[in-house]
Amino acid sequence: MAARTESPGEQRVLQVLAADGTVEREVAWTEGEFEIGRLGSDLACPEDSGLAEHQIHLTWKEGRATIRDSGGGSGVWLRVDGQEGRLLRSGDQVWVGMQILVLKKQEAGWRVQHHGPDGRLRGTHPVPPRGLFIGRTSDLVLDAGDPHLSRRHAQLVPEGDAIRLYDRSAHNGTFLKLSEPTPLPDAGEFRAGRQRFRFCCERMDSPEGDLRAGVADAGKGTGTGISEPDSSTGTLKRRDSGEEGGREVLQDEGARR
Question: What angle do CA 194, 98, 94 make, to 5 degrees?
Fold first, then answer.
């Protein structure tokens, strides 16, 4: 067991969120490492078939949290910051509403591959030099009937040879599929299987007091569906909260019907 790394003036918690973003319960994170998965983890979700036995690995070192996907399951998705955004690489997968986007860098510039809830390729769209908004009624209209998609849900902005993604949805969020260990900020929200979490670091000696109060409303909303694997096809299936059925979404470039 890892040595305890919690200081007297600090408390780390993982908030387990409901589909609408409200807090269902809190789990203390007192060790240097913490695992979330279906079985044999610090936080186990045995009923969630979309999780691997050990899906999410969290590390706390020198006052910083890091998150990584341990492999298997339907992946780990981290919510993108609306202020700083996140630089993307060719091949990155982005989850908005019930849609999956894959960013591709080509000689002519960046392009967005749009895959619908059924996993099928709906279209490929160029990103103009000025960038574009993505949503129900934006520069790039994905699916006007998607109830989890905001009018202006996300924004792509080219930066030289790179491109930056911003979350513009106050409720449902924009999520990036992790491909490497990534810093997890205070109030950082992430998903895996049918689960949704938020990390909070509460510093008891802070003049503001309980920092969790400051993020109580962060991420509230109706929530999007969650991806889980279909072992028969090798794809993912999107399962919306409250639905028994699933909708297939992309796992990799070749994994679509």
Answer: 90
What CATH number is associated with residue 131? 2.60.200
Domain that holds residue 130: 79-177
pTM of the model: 0.75
**Confidence band for 254, pLDDT divided at 50, 70 and 90:** very low
Same domain for 54 and 112, yes or no, is: no
Q: CA 16 to CA 196: how far, in whole Å?
A: 6
Is residue 88 assigned to a domain? Answer: yes
Whether residue 216 contacts residue 204, with contact meaning beta carbons closer than 8 Å, is answered with no
| pLDDT of the residue at 203 | 65
Residue-level pLDDT at 10: 76
Same domain, yes or no, for 115 and 173?
Answer: yes
- Adjacent-strand bridge partners of 190: 78, 197
Per-residue model confidence (pLDDT) at position 175: 96
Tokens 């409901």 correspond to 18
**pLDDT cut 90: percent of the chain above it:** 57
Residue 71 placed within a domain: yes
- Do 66 and 101 fall into the same domain? no
Amino acid type, 232: S
Residues forming beta bridges with residue 95, ordered by sequence position: 100, 175
Computed on alpha carbons and rounded to an integer, the radius of gyration of the chain in Å comes to: 18
Q: Which of 233, 236, 240, 239 is nearest to 249 (CA)?
A: 236
User: How many domains is the chain partitioned into structurally?
Assistant: 2
Q: What is the pLDDT of residues 141-193, one digit of tens each?
A: 998 889 889 999 999 999 988 999 999 987 889 999 999 999 999 999 999 98
Which strands make up the sheet holding 247-249, listed edge to edge? 226-230, 235-239, 247-249
